[in-house]
Amino acid sequence: SRRHKLYREELNLTSLAVPLRPEASWLQFHLGISRDGLYPRSSPTVNRLLRDMQDFTTISADYSQDEKALLGACDCSQIVKPSGVHLKLVLRFQDFGKAMFKPMRQKREEETPEDFFYFVDFQRHNAEIAAFHLDRILDFRRVPPTVGRLINVTKEILEVTKNEILQSVFFVSPASNVCFFAKCPYMCKTEYAVCGNPHLLEGSLSAFLPSLNLAPRLSIPNPWIRSYSFDGKEEWEVNPLYCDTVREIYPYSNGNRLLNIVDMAIFDFLIGNMDRHHYEMFTKFGDDGFLLHLDNARGFGRHSHDETSILAPLSQCCTIKRTTLLRLQLLAEPEYRLSDVMRESLLQDRLAPVLTEPHLLALDRRLQLILKAVRKCIDTYGEAKVVANDTTQPEAPASDRVKMTT
After folding, report:
1. CA nearest 213: which of 276, 283, 158?
2. 3-class secondary structure for 71-137?
3. Is residue 295 located within the same domain as residue 358?
4. 357 within domain boundaries
5. Residue at a domain's end among 207, 241, 256
6. Ligand-binding site membership of 209 (annotated)
7. Can you tell which superkingdom this protein's organism belongs to (predicted)?
8. Domain boundary among 186, 207, 228
9. Active-site residue among 275, 288, 306, 379?
10. Could you tell me which residue, 9 or 336, shows the higher pLDDT?
11. What angle do CA 310, 314, 318 make, to 5 degrees?
12. Is 214 annotated as a binding residue?
């Protein structure tokens, strides 16, 4: 009851005429977060949440907090690095759940141009969907549940939003399609609009995590952050012994934080994401809590190129969790080939095929490169020093689940 009271206050549900159902899938998802991951390994709640995000009526639409930060419309000091090159909206549903909507910006068969820097790349809705499936297959469970949906931009965004700025950026194109664009200081013009056909538009919906008031999170710079300029390099790009420095710095000097960074690098290498400048953690679980793998829309841009620099945490630190290595080795076996498992998993999404065949096959190729890097480390330092034994960790007790308290 106390948790529900906090949620009602957070949602401004002061009237008893508006019930907050305890069995709502998004609420059950929030209550299921533990120090092991965002959801249990076998979670019927996640599948129900995915169905609800696909089917439930949209009752409101608004800009996300980072876009509001660009407009000076909110105090968004806890939001990671606002950017105006993307277009995303917060959609609320009939049961008061909400999801981040990212519309289709690039067709599946299109590759990111070679001349694009990673920090000006498009965000791809199908990359968000595929990243969730891959994260679940790897048994990380650190990406919020994400699903594809066809949105009627007129009925489900324009007609339900109360934001006058959002209303003002809708227009009808010469092809009679309904379009809209982001409102921000740069890259937000009609040339960068997204358009329905004439009203329907593909997009990804990612379930929101509990609010920062209910479940505080930290945003932490990635030690292997990239330079966000057209020239210049970070220290890790020029110093092969960079990891020695990282290992001496709290919190990477002990615990499993560095191993979690390596997990994140492996995940990003598989999807081709070079844009992991920060990571987030729930403060509830302390220094050894899992890292959230948020904002994966810049993945799956180029299937023809393997950006091995993403693997720097693995190749420079030469350490990996045993559970991660065992899962990767399993997915390299012919009967459990990663591309086959991903293909089958993605067929569950209504926007299937989510990835083109070259992107699926690239996963197998990149997996072999990861295993090759691990073998090189083992040959150099020995398995005992490279492979960290985390297979005996007990399941998290119920008391370690996220408490929705202020």
Report:
1. 283
2. CCCCCCCCCCCCCCCCCCEEEEECCCCEEEEEECCCCCCCCCCCCCCHHHCCCCHHHHHHHHHHHHH
3. yes
4. yes
5. 207
6. yes
7. Eukaryota
8. 207
9. 275
10. 336
11. 155
12. no
Q: Which two tokens stand for residue 140?
A: 């990380």
Which one, of 41, 43, 48, 5, lies nearest residue 25 by Cα?
48
d(C-alpha 213, C-alpha 65), whole Å:
15
Q: How far apart are CA 96 and CA 106, in angstroms?
A: 30
Same domain, 317 and 358: yes
pLDDT digits (tens, 9 = 90+) for 88-141: 899 999 888 999 999 998 888 887 767 666 656 677 999 999 999 999 999 999
Count of domains forming the chain: 2
The residue among 380, 391, 390, 143 whose CA lies nearest residue 255 is 390
> Which residues touch 218 (CB under 8 Å, ≥6 apart)?
280, 281, 283
pLDDT-based confidence at 43, cuts 50/70/90?
A: confident
Q: What are the two backbone dihedrals, phi and then psi, of residue 149, each rounded to the nearest 5 degrees? A: -155, 145
23 is in an annotated binding site: no
Owning domain of residue 259:
217-388
207 is in an annotated binding site: yes
The yes-or-no answer on residue 268 being catalytic is: no
CA distance 88 to 406: 28
pTM of the model: 0.86
Please give the Cα distance from 29 to 15 (Å, whole number). Answer: 24
- Give the 3-state secondary structure percentages of the chain, helix then strand then coil, rounded to 5: 40, 15, 50
